[in-house]
Every structure is written in structure tokens, then in C-alpha cells.
Amino acid sequence: MPARSAHDDGGVSEHPRRDDTQLAAQWARVRGRLQSEVGDVEYRTWLRQMSLGGIDGDEVTVRLPTRFLRDWVRSHYSDRLSALWQAENRGIRRVDIRVGESATDAAGDAAPEPADLPPAPAAAAEPVPAGAAVPGERGAEAALDPRFTFDSFVVGKPNEFAYACARRVAEQPASVGFNPLFLYGGVGLGKTHLMHAVAWELSGHGEAPRHSRPASVAYMSAERFMYRFIAAIRSQATMEFKEQLRSVDVLMIDDLQFLIGKDATQEEFFHTFNALVDAGKQIVVSADKSPSDLSGLEDRVRTRLGCGMVADLHATTFELRISILGAKAARAGVAVPAKVIEFLAHKITSNVRELEGALNRLIAHANLFGRAITLESTQEVLHDILKAHDRRVTIEEIQKRVAEHWNIRLTDMASARRARTVARPRQVAMYLAKQLTSRSLPEIGRKFGNRDHTTVMHAVQRVSDLMAVDAGFAEDVELLRRMLES
Ligand code: ADP
Ligand code: MG
User: Fold this and answer.
1) Among the atoms of ligand 1, which is closest to the Cα of residue 196?
2) If we measure between CA atoms, which residue out of 108, 109, 107, 77 comes closest to residue 95?
3) What does each C-alpha distance from 21 to 103, 114, 165, 379 come to in angstroms?
4) CA–centroid distance, residue 120 to ligand 1 (Å)
5) Which of 32, 114, 190, 209 has the fewest CB atoms within 10 Å of its CB?
6) Among 400, 391, 389, 393, which residue's Cα sits nearest to residue 439?
7) Cα torsion at 82, 87, 92, 93 (round to 10°)?
């Protein structure tokens, strides 16, 4: 079995020049991973026109057709490009981003579009042909995302349990009750992040060197696991494959739901799993559902998966989104006004990945144009993202949000009370109802305790006048409008 060939393909070669096809493949993977990190829209906007210039010593050149794109990519993606290149090819230390047409050498143009490739592999030292060495410490290290550490993981109510379990496993692998560790939750909530964090710690890269000896950690997606298993069958090397997998200290399989319906691979996973647990090794698995909800997975596999520690990552809360945005902005060293952070946390509720993508774009934009981030610029720069998260706003929602904002009771929106503390917010709610919905003045009046349409008209006028003279008030109303806007 040509076990060595793993390294030719895996990008850990000390002779990066040796093979243009190899370089092209590495480049394709770098691009693919970048694309999956930043998302399609961002990738198409800024990165699609990148081409590989060539490699010189420890420096790889990436070209872009215009100065504008070069500057943009330089200021926003150079760190990620370097990190991804280094993960692919240890010989590379620097990425030079330049203006230039596609290189004439084959590597630039021959690199397939990331979209043509299989999903960006998160697997260690991949692609690994059948029978190649299971990634040990070095391999795992090469593919782990350096940003995914415990340090950079923001803890809040929805994820504190999963976080604590992951930390515990990183500190004391294979302890009773925590093996296997099964992490589950929806897309973009931090499963892969936590797994990488555990892998970093265990393979000896943690903040404190707790372990006498770095463990050999094999981290791979379930898809990669299957790929390798099938490749092993084809080349009649299943024995080697099994032995190699079973020689690791820690096995981590990400996105296990992928194995549903893949019976032979499931079977193999199950045997490996049992062998490792019996040998006192730690297993960490992630999936999009809990073991009991993973229908289609064999019962005995499900049972075994659920018999260690099962921890879920819940959907984010407003508070967690605020903390994450705050932490990421601080890390990037960029001043993002609290109002913008609140606005984003209100608007983008789907998952952390999207939240992060939005913030990154905002920061990128501010850096490029040297402009401060404001609510206006946010609205502008994130126009498409925000639109995708839009929904139709109702008068009830407006009343609720406005009441919350000024801390009055919702019932006061329809009450007869005329104290300024409730009358003013009520007027703002009417104003916003006029602005944001297609309801007529009489219809709006009815929703506010059967008030007359002239009252609504007066409220709209009053709020506009006040906004013109009171900047603080205007900003409050604007913030509310942006939050509610459809
Ligand atoms: P999953 O594997 O659950 O789909 P990921 O782990 O890939 O999600 O997370 C998506 C993105 O969101 C990553 O960039 C990750 O770093 C980030 N992320 C998720 N949760 C957190 C968190 N609690 N703190 C900081 N970043 C987070
Ligand atoms: Mg993941």
C-alpha cells in the first residue's frame, strides 16, 4: 500500500514545486474552503476572479485582475488565505496578493472552480487515499481551523452545556460518562468549532499543556470517513484502514447524519467505534439531531452513540448574538457602534455563521473605504443579506417593539392615557405603522384603541417634526424602523 502518497496529496510536501497538478489541487481546496467560509455571495463578489500566480520558495502568489479587487482581497482575506494555504502546504509562509491576469502556467487556469469540487473537506490531512496513514498529530494539526479554539468560542445560555462538555473532554479524554461525546444542533451553531477546539487542546496546542503527551487525534467529516472507507474497499486495503483508524487516541466524526442510509459505512463506523471505546479511547461525534432523532441510523448505533454524554447547541438568543458580535468586533479591532450590533442581532437570527458573515462584510467595507460603521452604512452594505432576512411587519409587532423600547405596557398602545411617557411612544408606533405597513389611517387608528384617523395623522406629523429637531429622538425612531423594516 503506498502509504507515503498521502503526503504527496495531503499538501505537507517539503517540495511544493514538484508538481503543478498538486499545487492546482491545493489551490482548488483553498478556494473551496474559503468559499464555504465566506458564503457564495461574498465569494462571487470578491474572490471568484482570483487566480494562482505561482510559487516561489515559501511564497505563493495570488492574482486579481484589478487594483480595487487586489486591495479588497488583501485587506480582508489575506489572513484567511495564508492560514488556508499553510494548512494545505506547510512549505508556504506568505501569500502575495497582486494585480495580474491569470498566470499562463497550468496551475492557475486548470484549477477547477470550487463549485465543481466536492464540499470543502474539513477532514484532517486530506485527501487521503486508501490505506494511507491515518492522520496523527501532524495531520490533524494541518486541517484544523486555527480560529476554532475554546478561547474564541463565546459562551451563553444556548451553548454553555455543550461548551462545558467539550472542555471537560479536552481536559480529561475518555472519562466515564463523557465517552462518546455527542454534540448536536442546527447548522452554524458551533458544532465544528467546538470539535476543532477539543482537537486543538488534545493534540497539544492548548493554552496550557495539560497532557504529558499530545494525543493522536483523527478528526474528519462523516463524508470523508465514507470516502476513505470506500477507497479502502476499492483498493482492497480495508484491513489497513481499520488498523489505522483504531490506532488513534481520539476519533472525531463531524456531521454524522451523513452516514444515514450508507449502511456499509455505518457498519464500519460502528465497529471502529466499539473497538476504540473498548480500548478506552475518546470518541466525539456531531450531528444535526439527537441520537434518538437520527432515524435511519441503525438502532444499535444510536443506542451506543447516546450512552455517553449528549449535549445540544440551541438556537442563539438575542443576548448571545450580541456577545458574539461584540467579541468578534473586538477581535477584529474595529469599532462597531452598539446600535449596529443590536440591529444585527435583531435582524440576523438564523445562525452564527450568517451573523459572522454579515459582520465580516461590514468590517471589510469599513476598512476598505476608511469610513466609520454606522446604521446607514450597515443598511447599505448588508442590503442583500438583510433583505433575505426580511419579513412583513405587522402593527402588533410595531406596538410590541415600541412598547419594549420605551418600557411601557403593551396595553397602553390602545389605552386612553395621555401622559407624555405613554403618548409619545404611542405616536411613534402610529408613525411607524404608517411608514412600514400599507394600512390606511383609519385602520391604524382602530388598532390603537379605536382612535380617529385625524389622531393618527397628527401623530405622524408630530413625530416627523420632533425628529427634525431632536437628533436623539430621531435616532431612536430610526433604530426602531430599521429593526422592524420589511
Ligand atoms: P456547525 O458546525 O454547527 O454548523 P460551526 O462550528 O461551523 O457550525 O460554526 C459556524 C461559524 O460560527 C464558525 O465560524 C464559528 O466559529 C462561529 N461560531 C458558532 N458559534 C460560536 C460561538 N459560540 N462563539 C464564536 N463563534 C461561533
Ligand atoms: Mg459543522
Assistant:
1) 6
2) 77
3) 14, 15, 42, 43
4) 16
5) 209
6) 393
7) 50
Name the residue at shortest CA distance from atom 23 of ligand 1: 154
Q: Bin 333: left if φ > 0, else alpha if -120 < ψ < 50, else beta.
A: left
**Beta bridge mates, 220:** 253
CA of 191 to the centre of ligand 2 (A): 5
Q: Which one of the ligands is nearest to 184 CA?
A: 1
Ligand 2 ion: nearby residues, β-carbon < 5 Å: 191-192
Residue 192 alpha carbon to ligand 1 centre in Å: 7
* CATH node for 318-392: 1.10.8.60
User: What's domain 140-313's architecture?
Assistant: 3-Layer(aba) Sandwich (3.40)
- Across the range 367-391, mean pLDDT stands at 85
Question: Which atom of ligand 1 has the smallest separation from the CA of 254?
Answer: 2
Q: Which CATH code is given to the segment(s) 16-105?
A: 3.30.300.180
pLDDT in tens, 205-235: 765 555 557 788 999 999 888 888 888 888 8
Per-residue pLDDT tens digits for 99-140: 887 544 333 333 333 333 333 333 333 333 333 333 433 343
Residues enclosing ligand 1, CB less than 6 A? 148, 152-154, 159, 185, 187-193, 324, 352-353, 356
Cα 468 to Cα 99, 142, 405: the distances in Å are: 47, 57, 20
Q: Where are the domains of the chain?
A: 16-105, 140-313, 318-392, 395-485
DSSP state of 124: T
> Is 68 in contact with 44 (CB distance < 8 Å)?
no
Tens digit of pLDDT for each residue in 15-60?
444 567 888 889 999 999 998 888 776 787 778 889 998 888 889 9
Q: Which DSSP state fits 214?
A: P
> Reduced to 3 states, what is the DSSP secondary structure of residue 446?
helix
